[in-house]
Amino acid sequence: MIRAALARGVSGVAAALLCALPAAAQPLPPNELGRIMVLEYHKIDYPEERWTRTPENFRRDLETLYARGYRLQNLNAVLDGKITVPAGTTPVVLTFDDSSPGQFRYVVKDGKVEIDPKCGVGVLEAFIKEKPDFGRGATFFVLPGASRPNRLFDQPEYEGKKLQFLVSQGYEIGNHTLWHANLGKYDEPTVRGQIAEAQVWIRRHVPEYQIRSLALPHGVYPKDLSWAQSGTAKGTTYKTDAILMVAGGASPSPFARMFDAFRIPRIQAVERDLTTWLGYFEKNPSERFVSDGDASVVTIPSGKRDKLKSLPPTLKVLER
Ligand SMILES: [Zn+2]
User: Fold this and answer.
1) What is the pLDDT of residues 227-275, one digit of tens each?
2) CA 99 to centroid of ligand 1, rounded, Å
3) What is the DSSP secondary-structure string of the chain?
4) CA 176–ligand 1 middle distance (angstroms)
5) Distance 180 CA to ligand 1 centre (A)
């Protein structure tokens, strides 16, 4: 009797739990005016703390995102409005700041050089292999001229190999200045020099690579925004298409009038903020960007046309 009641009780709880989960199971209608999470990771290492996510927790983040219908999209694709994730799913952008060693490490195993399965890239690559429909992408905002251990992931002998691997595998490299300069503190030549020189140093390893985005060290803007946007310094010309902040929540859709490529907010990928934002979108699914699966069509809820920015004629708008 008691056993049967317990069994009923347990299955009741299980049923209740299942009922509490369905947001991921029910297909969401497309809404390409919804918001996108740009997640900001720092160290992937031990122990878990303010600026560190353990490899296990990072893996769990990927599992959670996947289970809740998020799919990887590169930042540049978002900037270009080329949302290619499947219909009914939500793009999510991964970013990694400061090129710390745990983000990307090579180890020698049985005489062979391989990616450490416990580093950020190792965890990500393994997960993508298991779930190819998760997509592929992440932007690494590296520091080519920082002191150790933040100088290009802290293995001088593999610096070039790492940057070349990232580019060849569809990841992006972003500018985070030469050595993490607080851009608000410096004059124009220094600000421009920091951005230009970072590009020069990165291109020593990946000569043709176009760096399109800048993550502000400490989240601090230069005194004049235009210094970060484009210019020439240290014999090189740079052009920044996007500037990322260090906080601010989920980003507006790139199709929204509110979207400002030079003020893209991010969500720090720490337990509390991730839980808050994932919970927010579970409770407010209409706030969430949901793809229609067609990169040439922008599907929006009816009556929301005034929220759209002006779009290139190649993009068709569909109200649902
Ligand atoms: Zn940083």
Assistant:
1) 999 999 989 999 999 999 999 999 999 999 999 999 999 999 999 999 9
2) 9
3) -HHHHHHHHHHHHHHHHHHH-GGGTSPPPPBTTSBBEEEEE-EE-SS-BTTEE-HHHHHHHHHHHHHTTEEE--HHHHHTT---SPTT-EEEEEEEES--GGGS-EEEETTEEEE-TTSHHHHHHHHHHH-GGG----EEEEBTTPPTTSBGGG-GGGHHHHHHHHHHTT-EEEE-TTT---GGGS-HHHHHHHHHHHHHHHHTTSTT----EEEPGGGPPPSSHHHHHEEEETTEEEE-SEEEEEEESSBPPTTBTT--TTSEEEEE-SHHHHHHHHHHHHH-GGGB-B--S-TTEEEE-TT-GGGBPP--TTSEEEE-
4) 7
5) 6
